[in-house]
Design brief:
The structure holds two protein chains of two kinds. Chain A is α/β, with parallel strands linked by helices. Chain A contains ten helices and ten strands. The longest helix of chain A has 18 residues. Chain A is globular and about 65 Å long. Chain B is α/β, with parallel strands linked by helices. Chain B has a five-stranded parallel beta sheet, with helices on both faces. Chain B is globular. Classes of the chains: A alpha/beta, B alpha/beta. At the A-B interface, helix 2, helix 4, helix 8 and strand 4 of A face helix 1, helix 4, strand 5 and helix 5 of B.
Chain lengths: 277, 123
């Protein structure tokens, strides 16, 4: 059974819908994208086909269906435990090393420098809770910042829809750390209260952030800046990080040609450390 | 080619899931309820993964899952539940019955792909 192609009238409706719901501009000629992403949504709502889905969207304000369409058409920029390899390094390398080096002070500071809607700092807190619960006896600070007030408000609420809690979260982790209130999933208070959210612009001077951080996450942000701005941010990051701290960038990002203040330890990719001088 | 059994009483859902899993490199078979799924698994041998709906006639998904976990030949088969039963107690019940992962319907291609990865049957 070949799915019915999207009609031009339905395509125009979906363009307007996505513009209104998510500020997403669906260009011309993306019918294939609509068909490949929304046909499974139609089937899972037990609607006959894509025209049936659009017909229901036209007359019905059902939030679950709206969320499903927005989710399917989104380019997701954040998720829980984004890039599983990164969190494997956090668990296997970074935190064990810091537990050894910080044993005398019993203090650990983590900064998620572009935390968006909170999945990254909550993933850090869940990692500690699952694998290093003794760290909660330490003074652990997880500072999460973002330029967007709207994103921070969502992050601080710790409430996610069913699509967001299925990206990156194994079901056992969902059951352990979330509770459900109507159609929203709320992160457990003991995780939520571990994270301190504040608004911060990476282009501003790095002041008001406190003592040096042991781990800084700055993932998939630098790609939006020009070379000079990236270099300036690396200089500020170097001042904000402990001499034996860890810097985590996005998988597609690199320090090469931008700074000599950080280096890749042991030739292994995955995170960066301040260059010893 | 890894084998996957799609168990759902909705033909449209089976077709939609089949398209996704075949694009991921799976060899897909279908069953329309839990009884048919058990019969298929015992006749053809356990697949690498069962994608299991819960609300089905004849034999529901939870009963099918419990029967699989008690059966010597089927007890180690990876089962990913895929259901509209999206409350926390329902998900907890499925995991307690032996589900390896859980996909809440409606799902996207990305979510189904990731759940298969989390269940360990997709690199």
């Amino acid at each position: 059974m070949t799915p019915k192609p999207v009609s031009s009238a339905d395509y125009e409706f979906l363009r307007e819908f996505l513009r209104r719901e998510m500020g997403h501009e669906l260009g011309d000629g993306k019918e294939y994208l609509v068909e490949s992403r929304l046909n499974p949504i139609a089937a899972s709502f037990e609607l006959d086909d894509l025209p049936g889905l659009v017909a229901r969207l036209r007359v019905n304000a059902d939030r679950l269906l709206r969320d499903a369409v927005v989710e399917a058409m989104s380019i997701q920029e954040t998720s829980f435990f984004r890039s599983g390899k990164t969190f494997e390094l956090v668990r296997a390398d970074m935190i064990p090393a810091l537990m050894r080096s910080r044993a005398s002070t019993s203090r650990l500071r983590v900064w998620c420098a572009a935390c968006s809607t909170g999945q990254e700092p909550f993933s850090v807190a869940m990692t500690i809770d699952d694998h290093f619960p003794k760290l909660w006896d330490w003074q652990v600070e997880i500072v999460a910042t973002d330029i967007s007030r709207q994103a921070l408000d969502r992050a601080a609420a710790g409430a996610y829809n069913q699509f967001e809690v299925q990206r990156g979260l194994p079901v056992q982790t969902l059951l352990k750390h979330f509770r459900q209130v109507e159609d929203r999933w709320l992160i457990a208070d003991q995780i939520r209260r571990r994270v301190k959210f504040q608004q911060f612009n990476l282009l501003d001077p790095f002041v008001g952030l406190g003592d040096p951080f042991d781990v800084i996450f700055l993932r998939s942000v630098l790609i939006y800046f020009d070379v000079a701005t990236k270099s300036a941010i690396f200089t500020k990051l170097r001042r904000a990080i402990a001499n034996d701290g860890f810097l985590v960038l996005g998988e597609a990002e690199s320090i090469i040609g931008l700074t000599d203040q950080f280096s890749i330890p042991n030739g292994e990719a995955g995170y960066y450390v301040p260059t010893r001088r | 080619m890894p084998k996957i059994l799609i168990v759902d009483d909705s033909k449209a859902t089976r077709i939609a899931i089949r398209r996704i899993v075949e694009s991921l490199g799976f060899d897909a078979d279908e069953a329309e309820n839990g009884r048919a799924a058990l019969d298929h698994c015992l006749a053809a041998g356990p697949p690498d993964c069962v994608l299991l709906d819960l609300n089905m006639p004849v034999l529901d998904g939870i009963s099918c899952l419990r029967a699989m976990r008690k059966h010597e030949r089927l007890k180690d088969c990876v089962v990913v539940v895929c259901s509209t039963n999206n409350t926390l107690p329902q998900i907890r019940e499925a995991v307690a019955a032996g589900a390896n992962e859980y996909v809440m319907k409606p799902f996207t291609v990305e979510i189904l792909t990731e759940k298969l990865r989390q269940a360990g049957i997709l690199k």
